[in-house]
Amino acid sequence: MTSMTTFRVSHRALLGHWLLVPLGAALHFAPHAPFTLDGANAPEALTNILSWAGMGLAAWGLLNVAYQRLAHEYVIGPERVIERHGIIARRVTPLFIHHIRSTEVNQTILGRLLGYGTVEMSAAGTGTSEARFDRVSNPLKVMASINSHYQSLAAGTGQE
């Protein structure tokens, strides 16, 4: 296997940020709606503030989704896995596949329902995770890909 597989944060894992967009849009386009339930009229200054707050909320949701998707990249190659975080400031964590001793998948209930989770890899001699792929789609497939690369590397060198 000589291919590199790249994973990013799942769109479904960012559901909370995605929900800010329609909520903010509704607040922007109908800032007087919360006040019409009582039959009262809201002051114009308050509706202007709510309109701007709605626009800011929608923009915050979109920017957060864009940042999470662009700033987190996970690569599985034939000889190592690479975890990259950041856009301007960068943190890169490479881990050679032959050093990986265990892989673990963690999924919350919502993660199980929506199909995303975290894959943690620990290296020889450490009790903590060395590399961690947060909120990736289909984490069992990611773990199988890592194990497959490990098996092909072990078969090529005669180790197990």
Can you walk me through this structure?
Helices cover 45% and strands 27% of the residues. It has helices at 15-29, 33-36, 44-71, 109-114, 139-157; strands at 5-8, 72-76, 80-85, 91-96, 100-106, 116-123, 131-137. Helix 1 (15-29) runs antiparallel to helix 3. The chain is elongated. The mean pLDDT is 88.
The largest sheet is: 4 strands, antiparallel
Helix content: 40-55%
Task: Count the DSSP helices.
Answer: 5
Q: Output the strand order for the largest sheet.
A: 1-2-3-4
Question: Beta-strand level of the residues, as a percent range?
Answer: 25-35%
The tally of strands reads 7
- Average pLDDT across residues? 88
Structural class: alpha+beta
Helix-strand topology string:
EHHHEEEEHEEH
CA-atom Rg in angstroms: 22 Å
What's the SSE blueprint?
Elements: E1 5-8, H1 15-29, H2 33-36, H3 44-71, E2 72-76, E3 80-85, E4 91-96, E5 100-106, H4 109-114, E6 116-123, E7 131-137, H5 139-157
Antiparallel strand pairs: 1-2, 2-3, 3-4, 5-6, 6-7
Helix pairs in contact: 1-3
